[in-house]
User: Which sequence fits this backbone?
């Protein structure tokens, strides 16, 4: 904010600068200019005399010239249009015979900073700066300070570009990253309630990304993520996901109440998404959620009941303390479940926890009665297991129908898998009831699974390079499968030291960099030709090692094993075993060895319906650099073969 | 950096197609995009989509689009670029096309194909943005917009808002505001006009006991200027206007908002002292200021709903009595009010008693729709609806009750427009133009205020 009390001063100085008598007297003229500079240094707004100062620059007095240039460099950003007038003088000075004048003019011209870049230019420059690696910590913070104003730009594109740059530059300073995310919270929230649905969607995807690392970041703003009736489906689904992730002790009541409202939405998809969301909140706030879910069963609506039962199944597995409540809620559900998923969930629950559900045998009996008309083989399999389990705890009520079911499955069933399962249980029963108990009485819950599943609080650095790109908008999983262009993913969670790869190295053009990544570094990896490993040896080593890396490559169409084998041979990868073409799922086992004796054992798994090839690599010496090179070799081969096929 | 840009009509007909880099397929991408869009499963977002080409690695293409005025504006790119910048660019393009063609729509675009191509040529070069400033572009654009009918001052009687896209798009675009920024030099003199709109979107959530759970106001001051470029204008806002929770101004309650952002061309030197925004608006549309306000509204909410539900479980008869009170000042009114109430599944019949004849109520898509074309401030309207819901089970664990609403009923949501009313209380005090003795008649200034509902939800 300029200091406002100096208006008279400015007027007086302006008059003095225009006075031809003063202009004629070199010393007096210089004095007036010095006064302007003094006021400027004190913080007064002297931009009012810009015109007069520009005129004063046309002088042979070097001291005066220097003073005027100092003034111009300070005020040029405020008066960009007037600064253009000074350019003329500066250009003339550049051809002055005096080298000092030339140098001065050039330096001043370079420091005339005009905020000429529009928002598109700014976004481009911010993106370009991602390639720069600061040489020292001091330089890093200088850059951050310079760019701070872009975090407050009115254009979301610029703000997000700046945010990404900050996150990546400050990768070793988590508190700076948190500060930055704090600063742009307002912009993200505003974009989330933007009138443009599309912008809103992109912002929501990024909010989810931020929540992965800072779960409490948006908790106090939970109301912003309530859905409104008129919003399109894809925004509602994102908002529900966000609500699940930001729930905490203070807002859980309100969030659950809101979600409950969505469960009866006209759109079945949205209603089901809301129920699953309540289910995932139930892992932390079990009692409240189970109560809501139980109430929903009272609606007796097919699409609701089936999802609630599936949610219950997952819940008792993760949170055994809610088993009692779930068991009480189950009776009656069977009447309004028609689909395979729902039936499987219900039957599983009745089998595992049937001891506590009085009418469990009779519900299963209904299923057994109607097994002939059951269309889903998966339901029949589930029914076999459930009934056998229930037989162990309530033999008297189950024995008869178990016999009937086994008879049906063995004698009449057409589906081979179901028949085999039936035969297996039959033989198991012949081996004695103790043997059955030993095999079927598996644990009824496993709360530890939750820890694996949640993977709470991923570091900001794990996604910083994806911020403000299409990755969060597609979702990480979809991105991995659709993006063929994507080179080897070097920043998996197990390889944190290479996370900065994409931004390191001073200013390598993007295309070249990709090529650099693509080429296997010959110093790091040299696969030995004619490496031979027997199948037995492979199997032994394979079983003894852990998977060092797992990744998915996009793949279309069928596999031609011969072509693939030949291609792999070219890069010195030996094929140990391979399915014939057309097998589903299709698998192959590969082996290779580098010059240091490190073995790379690989499994390829192709599931045609997913359009992707999953690779799992094991290594007998843990060395990430060579592993990465090996994977990029493998990807090049698979990518090439995949292209020829499709 | 974008590879292609095209505009499709709502039916998928390509209206405009431009390839900037020649690095990708061909024209059939437009058709491909539409096929993908219509074939999308319900749970997938249409914002970005991908196609994998048959050829080499670099044939992957991302489609990113916005929907605007019933058109699809689509950009394709093969890079993993910033979605924010690209979506912003598409919105900006929509505004620009609207500025230059008068309004954005299927008809105007197809009438002005040459102009649109000319604009695209100047805005994007080899897929990179050159400039999107209306002012800069005016120097390069030669084609004149083809307008469907000549502009006449009589149209001003029905001046609507140019920018506000309400849910039903019921605010008819004003023909005065929807004319191209660039038009033949001959009648330049009569087009000295400027439109200033304060538009607020209101989203509200009210609990079943009547307590307010959430209020959110998103406001914008939008300007559409047809003045000669470079003329300065000053916009005076309500003096009590303050930003943030701590600031207090004057005595009285003050007009408070939580956050404000301004367009980069706005000078704020008089804002602190007098709440005056100074700017030299370029031709065309511009969002001068955006602000938001949560939780703490200075005036009462425009509507309160008092529902009472009687439900006889035995006979399956559901009776809903809705009383709607409008708490606006008596001189104001709400237009196009519509109440939407989702009903339990299986509702078969409806009988209604409405408090005035101009209202209408009907069943559709599992919900009750109650239309009230006009509601005067301070008035109270009511409707009694009786429905038959055979075979609906009650909430579990309770006997037959007549007060607990059946599951699946509600929440009610209202949509409406409030002309000449802002929920935050923000008003434009004055709009002054720097005096320019050009011989022109005094410029016309139009200042309008409007609030409309974004989501106004009342739990039952």
Assistant:
């Amino acid at each position: 904010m300029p200091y406002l009390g100096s208006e008279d001063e400015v007027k007086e100085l302006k008059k003095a600068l225009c006075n031809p008598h003063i202009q004629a007297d070199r010393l007096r003229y210089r004095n007036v200019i010095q006064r302007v500079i003094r006021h400027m240094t004190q913080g007064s707004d002297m931009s009012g005399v810009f015109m007069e100062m520009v005129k004063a620059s046309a002088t042979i007095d070097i001291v005066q010239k220097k003073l005027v240039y100092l003034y111009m460099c300070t005020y040029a950003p405020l008066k960009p249009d007037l600064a253009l007038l000074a350019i003329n003088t500066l250009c003339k000075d550049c051809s002055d015979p005096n080298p000092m004048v030339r140098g001065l003019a050039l330096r001043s011209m370079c420091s005339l900073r005009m905020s000429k870049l529009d928002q598109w230019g700014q976004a481009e420059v911010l993106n370009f700066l991602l390639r720069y690696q600061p040489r020292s910590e001091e330089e890093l913070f200088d850059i951050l300070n310079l760019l701070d104003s872009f975090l407050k730009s009115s254009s979301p594109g610029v703000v997000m570009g700046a945010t990404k740059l900050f996150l990546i530059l400050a990768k070793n300073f988590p508190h700076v990253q948190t500060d930055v995310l704090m600063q742009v919270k307002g912009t993200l929230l505003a974009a989330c309630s933007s009138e443009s649905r599309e912008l809103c969607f992109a912002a929501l995807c990024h909010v989810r990304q931020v929540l992965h690392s800072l779960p409490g970041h948006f908790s106090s703003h939970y109301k912003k993520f309530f859905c409104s009736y008129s919003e399109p489906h894809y925004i509602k689904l994102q908002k529900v996901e966000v609500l699940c992730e930001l729930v905490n002790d203070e807002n859980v009541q309100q969030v659950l109440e809101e979600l409950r409202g969505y469960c009866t939405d006209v759109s079945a998809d949205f209603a089901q998404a809301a129920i699953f969301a309540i289910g995932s909140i139930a892992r932390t706030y079990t009692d409240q959620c189970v109560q809501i879910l139980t109430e929903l069963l009272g609606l007796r609506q097919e699409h609701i009941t089936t999802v609630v039962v599936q949610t219950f199944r997952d819940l008792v597995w993760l949170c055994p303390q809610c088993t009692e409540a779930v068991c009480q809620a189950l009776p009656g559900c069977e009447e309004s479940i028609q689909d395979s998923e729902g039936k499987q969930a219900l039957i599983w629950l009745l089998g595992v926890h049937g001891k506590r559900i009085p009418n469990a045998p009779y519900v299963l009996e209904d299923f057994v009665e109607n097994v002939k008309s059951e269309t889903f083989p998966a339901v029949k399999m589930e029914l076999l297991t459930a009934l056998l389990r229930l037989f162990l705890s309530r033999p008297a009520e189950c024995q008869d129908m178990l016999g009937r079911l086994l008879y049906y499955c063995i004698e009449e069933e057409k589906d081979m898998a179901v028949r085999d399962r039936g035969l297996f249980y039959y033989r198991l029963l012949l081996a004695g009831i103790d043997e059955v108990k030993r095999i079927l009485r598996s644990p009824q819950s496993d709360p530890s699974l939750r820890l694996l599943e949640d993977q709470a609080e991923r570091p900001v650095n794990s996604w910083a390079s994806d911020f403000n790109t299409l990755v969060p908008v597609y979702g990480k999983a979809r991105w991995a499968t659709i993006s063929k262009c994507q080179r080897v993913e070097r920043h998996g969670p197990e390889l944190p030291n290479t996370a900065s790869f994409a931004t390191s190295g001073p200013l390598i053009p993007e295309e070249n960099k990709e090529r650099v990544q693509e080429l296997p570094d010959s110093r790091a990896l040299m696969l030995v030709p004619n490496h031979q490993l027997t199948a037995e040896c492979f199997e032994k080593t394979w079983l003894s090692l852990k998977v060092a890396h797992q990744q998915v490559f996009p793949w279309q169409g069928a596999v031609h094993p011969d072509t693939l084998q030949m291609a792999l041979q070219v890069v010195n990868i030996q094929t140990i075993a391979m399915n014939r073409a057309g097998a589903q799922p299709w698998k192959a086992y590969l082996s290779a060895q580098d010059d240091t004796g490190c073995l790379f054992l690989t499994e390829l798994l192709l599931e045609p319906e997913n359009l992707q090839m999953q690779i799992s690599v094991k290594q007998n010496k843990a060395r990430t650099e060579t592993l990465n090179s090996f994977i990029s070799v493998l990807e090049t081969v698979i990518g090439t073969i995949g292209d020829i096929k499709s | 950096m974008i590879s292609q840009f095209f505009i499709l009509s709502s039916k998928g007909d390509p209206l405009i197609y431009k390839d900037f880099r020649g690095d990708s397929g061909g024209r059939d991408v437009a058709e491909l995009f539409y096929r993908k869009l219509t074939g999308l499963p319900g749970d997938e977002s249409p914002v970005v989509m991908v196609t994998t080409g048959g050829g080499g690695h670099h044939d992957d293409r991302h489609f990113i689009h916005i929907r605007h005025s019933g058109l699809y504006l689509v950009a394709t790119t093969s890079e993993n670029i910033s979605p924010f910048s690209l979506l912003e660019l598409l919105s900006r393009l929509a505004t620009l096309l609207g500025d230059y063609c008068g309004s954005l729509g299927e008809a105007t675009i197809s009438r002005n194909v040459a102009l649109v191509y000319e604009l695209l040529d100047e805005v994007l070069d080899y897929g990179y943005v050159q400039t999107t400033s209306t002012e800069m572009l005016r120097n390069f654009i030669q084609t004149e917009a083809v307008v469907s009918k000549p502009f006449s001052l009589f149209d001003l009687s029905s001046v609507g808002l140019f920018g506000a896209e309400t849910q039903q798009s019921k605010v008819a675009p004003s023909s005065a505001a929807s004319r191209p920024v660039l038009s033949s030099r001959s009648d330049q003199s009569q087009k000295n006009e400027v439109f200033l709109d304060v538009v607020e979107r209101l989203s509200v959530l009210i609990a079943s006991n009547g307590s307010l759970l959430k209020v959110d106001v998103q406001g914008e001051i939008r300007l559409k200027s047809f003045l000669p470029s470079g003329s300065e204008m000053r916009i005076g806002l309500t003096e009590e206007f303050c930003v943030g929770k701590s600031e207090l101004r004057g005595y009285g309650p003050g007009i408070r908002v939580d956050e404000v952002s301004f367009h980069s061309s706005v000078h704020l030197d008089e804002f602190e002292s007098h709440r005056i925004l100074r700017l030299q608006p370029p031709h065309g549309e511009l969002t001068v200021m955006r602000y938001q306000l949560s939780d703490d509204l200075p005036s009462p909410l425009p509507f309160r709903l008092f529902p009472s539900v009687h439900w006889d479980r035995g006979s399956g008869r559901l009776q809903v009595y809705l009383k709607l009170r409008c708490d606006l000042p008596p001189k104001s009114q709400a237009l196009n009010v519509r109440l939407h109430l989702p009903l339990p599944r299986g509702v078969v019949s409806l009988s209604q008693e409405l408090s005035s004849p101009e209202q209408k109520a009907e069943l559709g898509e599992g919900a009750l729709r109650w239309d009230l074309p006009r509601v005067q401030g301070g008035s109270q309207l009511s409707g009694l609806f009786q429905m038959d819901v055979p075979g609906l089970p009650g909430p579990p664990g309770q006997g037959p009750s007549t007060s607990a609403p059946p599951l699946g009923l509600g929440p009610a949501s209202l949509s409406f427009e409030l002309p000449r009313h802002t929920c935050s209380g923000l008003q434009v005090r004055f709009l002054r133009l720097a005096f320019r003795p050009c011989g022109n008649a005094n410029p016309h200034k139009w200042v309008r205020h409007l609030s409309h509902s974004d989501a106004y939800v009342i739990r039952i």
